[in-house]
Amino acid sequence: MMHLLNMEIFQLAQIFQLATTLASGLAELMPSSGTGKAILASILLGASCGMLGCFVVVRRMALMGDAVSHAVLPGVVAGLVWSVDRNPFVIFTLASISGILGAGVVQMLMKTTRLKSDAALGIVLAVFFAAGVVWQSKEKSATAGVLHFLYGNASSIDQNDLLMMLVTSVLIAVVVWLLLRPLLVVSFDAAYAMSLGYPVKFLNALFYTLLSFSVVVALQAVGVILVSAMLITPAATAYLLTDRFKPMLLWSMTFGILSGLAGCWVSMSYNKMSTGSVIALAATAFFALFYFVAPRHGILVKYIRVAKRKSRTHRENLLKEIYSILERKEFARESVSLKSLSERRRQTLEATQKDALILQKYALADYSEENRSLQLSEKGWRRAMEIVRNHRLWELYLTRQADYAEDHVHDDAEKIEHVLGAEIVEMLERDLDFPEVDPHGKPIPRPQSEVVFVEPKKRASQLVNPNKN
Amino acid sequence: MYSLTLPWEALGISAVWLVLMAFMVALPCSQVGSFLILRRMSLVGDAISHSVLPGIVIAFLFTGDLSSPWLIIGAGIAGLLVTIFIEMIHVGTRVKSDAATGIAFTALFALGVLLMQLYGGSKVDLDPDCVLYGQLDHILEYEAVSIAGLDVPRPLVTMTAVAFFTLTTMFVFYRVLVLSTFDAGLAASYGYKPVMVHYGMMFVLSIVVVAAFQSVGAILVIALLILPGAFAYMCTHKLPVMLSLAAGHALLSAVLGLYIYAWFDCNLAGAVVLAGAALLVLAWLFGPVDGQLWKWKRSLGEVEKPDDLIL
Amino acid sequence: MSKVDHPPALEIHDLSVTYHKKPVLYGVDVEIPQGSLVGVIGPNGAGKSTLIKSVMGVIPSSGGWVKVFGKPLKDSLHRVGYVPQRESVDWDFPVTVMDVALMGTYGKLGLFRRPGKAERKIASEALEKVGMLSYANRQIGNLSGGQQQRVFLARALAQDSDLYFMDEPFVGVDAATEAAIVTLLKDMRERNKTVLVVHHDLQSARDYFDRLILLNMRVVAEGPTPEVFTPELLHKTYGGRLTILSEIADRTAKMS
């Protein structure tokens, strides 16, 4: 494992070298128009923050991202003060160092004191930021453009910045691509990674370095304060959409890029708005959208699922009640009157009629308007039997195997009867040795046996015990 | 010796107001913050301090007055909104609470900044600068209130009232606060309702944050919340001592901050925070509990573990 | 003795608890007479701690009810004492041994009154009883496991409740402390206190407790120790979870 990793690191160094030689050539390829620059910047920041953000979200260290992003401020100020020509390389390097230092101090505080992670993060975030603020307030003229770094301003990005962003993003992408597996293992279970012989400390340090890099890439467009929006929100949106990590990476990058583009476009059209705020709000808008409509984890979908289940439960309860009315009359008749059903359900005739129409709509029963009576269809019969069987099987299971008192099990069975699947019914029947009556002595129907539509009497005996036929 | 008297000579009575103001901002923060640390909720302070911005901006746009009580109400609503959003996100989906916090507070903060940039441009005093740096040194420009023959700047009066309210509330509910923090189970069995304590705490926190917001800005508030508590936590094993030390830290950083401000002519709020950070470093080195020096000496076997001797 | 004069110390009816969408307890029925020492035993993850916490209202239950001395829990909270699991305590918290013992008196103080001389006396006596008075000024993190447990027992004594819940008090303590705790428990029973102890050691469970609750998601058996401590019932308790029951409970919990 160690060996493999070394290989990967070696490859990394080679690629880095390649990138730097390419950089000078690339500078000429950078778009020169303001829009072109903004588009490229959005893509770069969306991709790099989106990628790192996925790790941040699954490692549950969203607030580490926030702390690191605030911690780069002294580095930015140092860069502005020390580099008279505002060399982006100097600024980015100092900012990264500052961010990495911040992450290091958090670790140190947690290791050497009893302070918990939240306090350590808060301290670093605030103190580093304060250091930046104080320094900046001393060097007001040298740091005239510092607000661009704080709130983001896409139009302040020039070709050199862009080149720097490109190189850093490519570096991040390459490292993540090469070390995806080890990074993931470390995020998921550090102890296990250790047992595999992974250099956990190195990988964690690498992760914080990459995190600082991605903060730095996003710096000019989003700004220090709202970088954490780019680190958290797109990745969290992706997390709503998929359960696997690689698709999550892709989705997160997509949302990151889209939010970046939206932010740049809006803020460049309306001069007053800072790019960072618009980007953050765009990312939030995506999150809000998928919060409601995500296919599996969306609120709307969950709501619809619950509503559907409720209406199904309602229908099944109706079927069950029709069954028991028929059962009490020993299946002597084919249909039940609306009146007997309404009495059993303790509701008005009108409400019962509505219920009857619902059953008709789902082809579970035929409702005869003139007789005011309901007759179950074959499908209705089968479902009714299943529900009654589920109910009685579950009661039996609870009393026999799980030691519950007999007077206790009915209410529970009322709920459970609707959720037992075929597989569990089979297991239950096997466990209970194919029982014929429930704890109260009522027969357990057998819908799975082929019930043919014959005369009621005969069917009744078949239902109760098909083997006697 | 000149440098020691510099702030007082250069600023005169203003120096007293500035120190008092910084202290009155830092004091309630230090007390609430100490409990945030013990409850492991420091970052909730972070979230609230960012999220109150839109509430403040909207209230300000309507009233046009930075010292209007509507600002506190607006901020309170925004603070409540962010807690609700966080709940909605992490209860409703599988996104964990830390990410939910991040999403909610960045969104509200971004909204606040945008509103400020779009509609606040013509109005003075509320701009992105102020959000970042605070305006601790602007208090002198306010009209003064005459108290006992002294012209006290009005923000100082307001802040003192907030500090008094916070300290009284915490004093009255001290026991409830301690027990529900230490052992929610026992607190619940006494009928203390940990949920109520939590929301009560958020309420007081919001008030403190809003009041401090104008002085030190949205981000440096976090420093005032956490640094004093962390400093005290490193120095003692006893809660009353911890709270007093945190208050002492608030006072010391206010005074030292003023010196830094006067010596270097920099941002005052930032200077107060840096002074606080310097004290924290001292506690980290020499603090009786977490001090690295004692730990190092102990590892050499030079001193006994000072069990009950500690403060 | 009629049931009205001596209602059961604890009556749990059909209590179900889901926790983080995971079912932990399912239809629990228990009735415990006053003055008994009750052990709650069962395998890991059987819901022993959850039972205590939900009875005390710390974890909300999804169904069923609890009565303490014949009244709803809300009205008898002051008669209930609690000793938390050792792992759940923040041992770095800046409180001293005395502070913790004093917390036992808070319940009778109400919301605002401060503990005075009388309360200090109660707390000192309780500490004396568990042999921890000489450590009164120590921060709780600077104690051994056994000492830490004794401090929390002292707090329970200071509470002077009639019904106690103790979550794994024997975990991580030395033999001397274990013996001291047992003596204390017996002493409490003498004074007609009812104590419910979550316990994990089967062997000692038989000797320590009058009654046992065998728990594994549901109550497998409950009653006087000699009746319940049978190989058959124990096997049923520890013989793994009922797969179908946990599967189904899982499903319903996720849906609600």
From TrEMBL, chain B:
It comes from the Bacteria. One of its GO terms (biological process) is transmembrane transport. Its main location: membrane. InterPro entries: ABC_BtuC-like, ABC_TroCD. It is found in: Cell membrane. The chain crosses the membrane at residues 6-29, 41-62, 68-87, 99-119, 156-178, 241-262, 268-289. CDD domains: TM_ABC_iron-siderophores_like (cd06550). It is a multi-pass membrane protein. Keywords: Cell membrane, Membrane, Transmembrane, Transmembrane helix, Transport. GO terms for cellular component: ATP-binding cassette (ABC) transporter complex. This is Metal ABC transporter permease.
From TrEMBL, chain C:
Residues 10-242 form the ABC transporter domain. GO terms for molecular function: ATP binding; ATP hydrolysis activity. Belongs to the ABC transporter superfamily. It comes from the Bacteria. This is Metal ABC transporter ATP-binding protein. Gene3D superfamilies: P-loop containing nucleotide triphosphate hydrolases (3.40.50.300). InterPro entries: AAA+_ATPase, ABC_transporter-like_ATP-bd, ABC_transporter-like_CS, Metal_Ion_Import_ABC, P-loop_NTPase. It holds the Pfam family ABC_tran. SUPFAM superfamilies: P-loop containing nucleoside triphosphate hydrolases (SSF52540). Keywords: ATP-binding, Nucleotide-binding, Transport. It comes from Persicirhabdus sediminis.
